[in-house]
Amino acid sequence: MGSGIAAHFANAGLEVLLLDVVPPNLSDAEKKDPQKRNGWASGGLEKAIKARPAAFFHKDHARLVKVGNVEDDLGKLKDCDLVIEAIVEKMDAKQALFEKLEKIVPEHCIVASNTSGLRIAEMTKGRSDHFKKHFLVLHFFNPVRYMKLLEIVAGPEADEGIVAYCKRFAEDVLGKGVVFGKDTPNFVGNRIGAHAMMATVHQMLADDLSPEDVDNMTGTPMAHPKSASFRTADLVGLDTFVHVAKNCYASLTADEDRDIFKVPDYIRKMVEKRLLGDKTKGGFFKKGADKQIQTLDPKTLEYRPKGGDEKIKATTKALAKVEDPRERVKKLVADEGRAGDFARKVLYRSLAYSARRIGEIADSVVAVDNAMKWGYNWELGPFEVWDALGFAVTADAMEKAGHELPDSVKKMKASGASAFYKDGKVFDLLKGEYVAETFDPRYATLQILRRGQAPVLKNDGAEAWDLGDGVLGVTFKTKANSIDPDVIRILGQAADKAETDFRALVVANQGDYFCVGANLLLVVMAAAQEQWEDIRKMVKGYQGAVQRLKYARIPVVAAPYGMTLGGGLELCFGSDAVQAAAETYSGLVEVGVGLIPGGAGTMNMLWRSLEAIPEGTNFNIYENVIQTFKNIALAKIATSAEEGKALGYFRRNDGVSFDKARLVAEAKARAIGLANASYHPPIPRAHRLPGESGIATLSMMVDTLVAGGYASEHDAKIARKLAVVLCGGVGGASREVTEEEVLDLEADAFVSLCGEPKSQERMQYMLMNNKPLRN
Asked: In the structure, what pLDDT confidence band is assigned to residue 639 with cuts at 50, 70 and 90?
């Protein structure tokens, strides 16, 4: 956990000192070796560098982390502004460390614990009032880079100004979503999460269901992650899950539902047998010798083929297709079969428990909902689920099922309130009335920013809205925000409209992915009917749209996030600036379907790499060509916005939004900034490219890969066509090659590959299986 925290602080550009204990059992010689003494800290840093999913945005960020040990290097903390303790969850160890820290850290230094539930009063026992004013809990969720939740828990002596500063720092610098919790065991997220998980386990055993039955119900149908309950436990580690549950049971002696935290015998035996999940290659599920998933039977503790109740499977499979999570949960609870019965039992118990915790673990339903959405990746928090099911009818159903509701909810119901969230207000259970939801304009969504009752431009594939302040915003409406003729038309029309009636254009999408590329089905259908001119027209149309944005008289800003592949990245190439979410996964991946980038991506990636080279400089352009060739031919995917910069997909001065919730507002602000700075479009450039000799050299490289068995003959065919485009054709070295000439070569290569049977096979396989075929 400590190395994960260190990595994310480094991601934010902060210098970090990572300390750990001196490894035990060192020899006398090793005890004199600083590298050996720092072995555990160094090992933690190495694990963070090699971690998958990656802890660092880019490996270079690790340079900001220095290592040491707590015996030799505590003195270095005299220069630190913030110290975060993430040692073993033992009170005496923490107290001893804080006693040492108080004597070392500067007066202004904030000391924080990453404890998951130890009490502040006990941890700071014996410390001065000054220390207690500067002390609080900063509870990060693992993996730190990816989990938005940060729980801040302050003791009664904590300085309010310091607490407020930590909130701003967490949000503005680290991109975290802050939830203020009370100083209670497991705070907010893990208290509700552990209860929900344990209620699920006990109900599974009571209803004689299987782990796969439960996961089919508690994943997407319940508006929880696809990994659901038991698969999530395998990912997190069963030992971690059991530790949280045991801590709850031991600490929550006055909890009215304490027994729910008792760990069932079969799970205790799993821990004894080291069946801890992915970390031990087997937990509730494991992959068998035949690569098929097996399930651990709770009764026999033996693995068996994965199965489950077919009716539950059919019901939940249908529910998973419902896009709106509120409607999805409502349909699940309304189901009259075993799935609905189980869902009602588990959800009612969890919702009632969450309501009874308001005032104890947190002061608002918003805090609990955000904790579960940000810390457990639930689509809806408990109180949002309650609203989706209907507040009053669900309250009645819970009481009828024997679940005690707190007086605050009974009073709320008696007041005639119809929902926890209503008309921009939220019901405050402690005050017994609706209060306005706090709104920070930096988190403005597209729905909030849009002006007027209707879009400025609209068709079936996309629409453009007035976002206020002279900014026009384009949003796709296609599946996975893929690019089709309607999207292409809107992009051109939006550029025209923005030039006359607005001062900037932003492309900001919604959904899980920014854009997964072109609508492959249209290409496959046209290729099957040998409609080559139609394919060329489609390619030239998207090339034209990208270039239209690139040379528009107003600034264009793209706001990518998540999967930004193929045509999605090509769209970014056509933008003057990018404001990318930190978690943006980008690349030109067309070779996976037997093609090359055809929407100006091949040309613009190369041109991007040449932007910073001053005119008249004597340099070897072939080096840029070969790196672009590798990025495309190997379908290199950047796993963060920062890595996208390193690969040349984004510019070094493009913006990165650590919190995706701020992305649209920050993209709009970036567009306004460009417009206010007397924006003028770029001037087209031409370059002398390697030409025939470059094509020959790249072809030799490809031949070597084929001879070594690293590439197929069809891979080689794709790569050779790519080489022709990047080298400007056979005559590319004899003169400066224009953008238009390279775009024609790009379109020729794309269309010709569409006619290749192997490429058609790859495209069809991708459509059917959602993964590339190697042939």
From this structure: very high
Instruction: Report whether 102 contacts 129 (CB < 8 A).
Output: no
Contact 599, 567 (CB under 8 A): yes
Q: 597-620 burial string, b = 16+ CB within 10 Å, else e?
A: bbbbbbbbbbbbbeeeeeeeeeee
Cα separations in angstroms, 130 against 33, 106, 156, 254, 462: 37, 11, 13, 33, 57
Q: How far apart are the first and last CA of the chain?
A: 42
Q: How far apart are CA 337 and CA 603, in angstroms?
A: 56
What does the pLDDT average to over 571-600? 97
pLDDT average, residue stretch 603-614: 93
What is the rounded CA–CA span in Å between residue 351 and residue 347?
A: 6
Whole-angstrom distance, CA of residue 731 vs CA of residue 736: 10
Return the closest-CA partner of residue 420 out of 468, 473, 469, 383: 383
Confidence of residue 545 (pLDDT cuts 50, 70, 90): very high
Please give the structure tokens belonging to residue 743. Answer: 């775009």
Angle at 112 between CA 109 and CA 116, to 5 degrees: 180
Interatomic CA distance for residues 349 and 565, integer angstroms = 42
CB atoms within 10 A of CB 338: 17
Cα gap 444→502, rounded to integer Å: 20
Whether the upstream peptide bond of residue 597 has omega within 30° of 0, thus cis, is: no
Of 655, 516, 487, nearest to 582 (Cα)? Answer: 655
Closest-CA residue to 726 (of 619, 599, 634, 596): 596
Q: DSSP code of 432?
A: T
Q: Which two tokens stand for residue 290?
A: 């035949």
C-alpha–C-alpha distance, residues 729 and 749, integer Å: 11
DSSP 396-424: HHHHHTTPPPPHHHHHHHHTT---SEETT
User: Burial of 761 by CB count in 10 Å (0-12 exposed, 13-18 middle, 19+ buried)?
Assistant: middle
* Residue 590 one-letter amino acid: E
**256's tokens:** 């009215």
Q: Among the listed ranges 425-439, 522-536, 756-770, which one has the minimum average pLDDT value?
A: 756-770
Judged against a pLDDT cut of 80, whether residue 773 lies above it is answered with no
Determine contact, residues 322/328, Cβ cutoff 8 Å.
yes
Sheet (strand 285-287) strand order: 285-287, 293-296, 303-305
Cβ within 8 Å of residue 168, ≥6 positions away: none
Q: Quote the pLDDT of residue 775.
A: 60
Distance (Å, whole) CA 176 – CA 502: 33
How far apart CA 775 and CA 759 sit, in angstroms, is: 9
CA distances from 121 to 85, 87, 147, 155 (A): 16, 18, 27, 7
Backbone φ and ψ for 84, nearest 5 degrees, come out as -115, 120
pTM, two decimals, is 0.93
| Strand (E) or helix (H) holding 160 | helix 160-172
Q: Tell me which residue has tokens 């003494």.
A: 37
Tokens, residue 432:
């017994």
